[in-house]
């Protein structure tokens, strides 16, 4: 037995334990397969929703395409795997998907107990409530005794329970996995409110038959930073996902867009732009990707600002202002680590 313990300790020290054996394999596996398996929501406007032709549209869907473009130079080399909140982590743990890009709040316990790793923030949000306008409710304390539609296995379920308990109020939860089912229940009168993140409330309301009949209360009760999730102990793959998101933010900071990326790659003398777009191959070499990895991602989906405005911004049916998701130079929280 002492020999077996010694052998096991030696294997772990040399990086030959089971966790280390998996490290670094995802990038090679995805490249060999030739397709990225990307986990997305089963369908929320502005994030991931198939259109009438079955093409997935939305900010999360385009982030999947950005990763595919960085890997293969082709944003079409992605397989979208629709997942409910309950299914999402199991699908990633089991290897059914390579990365989860699905309105997932980055929390400490998720980052430390699931065998997964929260990568980086791509959207800042907060928990809120949507109620019927004719209920006359202007603040959450007026929701005492209401039935609230929630999705199980989400931070929103916990936030709602915590807030009502702390304020001595009662509510009855109606738990359904699919947020679309919650939206239908609210419209049909089976629940009095929906509790989830504010961006998702706006996305759901944009699809209602009579959106004006519903009000999103202005109060926020939590920090809900969204971001991609990968399996733990694969730092190489973690780096690819983190820096692809960062590249889109850096592109907006530098004024690089889907329209001018190719020209700037050829002509810019700005060293930051040259590194980002691959005229200087340093960043691609660091990730074991083509020098044009970031340029390909930006050309495919645009910079971060283009993504937000196209899918969630004021000119869309969802109609959100950027708020905390503005660049740091404009009073927001979006900030790319130096890419050098």
Automatic annotation (TrEMBL):
Residues 35-264 form the Solute-binding protein family 3/N-terminal domain. It holds the Pfam family SBP_bac_3. The keyword Signal applies. Keywords: Signal, Transport. Residues 1-23 form the signal peptide. It comes from the Bacteria. InterPro entries: Bact_solute-bind_prot3, Solute-binding_3/MltF_N. GO terms for biological process: amino acid transport. Belongs to the bacterial solute-binding protein 3 family. This is Amino acid ABC transporter substrate-binding protein.
């Amino acid at each position: 037995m002492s020999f077996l313990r010694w052998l096991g300790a030696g294997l772990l020290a040399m990086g030959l334990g089971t966790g280390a054996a998996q490290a670094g394999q995802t990038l090679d596996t995805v490249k060999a397969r030739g397709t990225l398996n990307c986990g997305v929501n089963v369908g929320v406007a502005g994030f991931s929703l198939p259109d009438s032709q079955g093409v997935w549209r939305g900010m999360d869907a385009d982030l999947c395409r950005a990763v595919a473009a960085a890997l293969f130079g082709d944003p079409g080399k992605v397989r979208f795997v629709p997942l409910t909140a309950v299914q999402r982590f199991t699908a990633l743990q089991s290897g059914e998907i390579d990365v989860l890009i699905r309105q997932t709040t980055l929390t400490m316990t998720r980052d430390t107990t699931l065998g997964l790793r929260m990568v980086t923030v791509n959207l800042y949000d907060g928990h809120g409530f949507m109620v019927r306008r004719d209920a006359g409710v202007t603040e959450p304390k007026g929701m005492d005794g209401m039935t609230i539609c929630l999705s199980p296995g989400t931070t929103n379920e916990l936030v709602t329970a915590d807030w009502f308990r702390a304020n001595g109020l009662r509510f009855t939860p109606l738990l359904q996995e699919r947020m679309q089912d919650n939206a239908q229940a609210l419209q049909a009168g089976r629940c009095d409110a929906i509790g989830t993140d504010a961006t998702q409330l706006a996305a759901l309301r944009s699809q209602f038959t009579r959106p004006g009949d519903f009000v999103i209360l202005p109060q926020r009760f939590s920090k809900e930073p969204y971001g991609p999730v990968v399996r733990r102990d694969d730092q190489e793959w973690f780096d690819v996902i983190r820096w692809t998101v960062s590249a889109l933010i850096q592109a907006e900071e530098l004024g690089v867009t889907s329209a001018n990326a190719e020209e700037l790659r050829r002509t810019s003398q700005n060293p930051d732009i040259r590194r980002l777009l691959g005229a200087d191959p340093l960043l691609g070499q660091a990730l074991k990707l083509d020098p044009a990895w970031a340029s390909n991602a930006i050309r495919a989906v645009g910079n971060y600002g283009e993504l937000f405005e196209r899918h969630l911004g004021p000119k869309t049916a969802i109609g959100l202002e950027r708020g905390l998701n503005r660049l740091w130079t404009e009073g927001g929280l979006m900030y790319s680590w130096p890419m050098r």
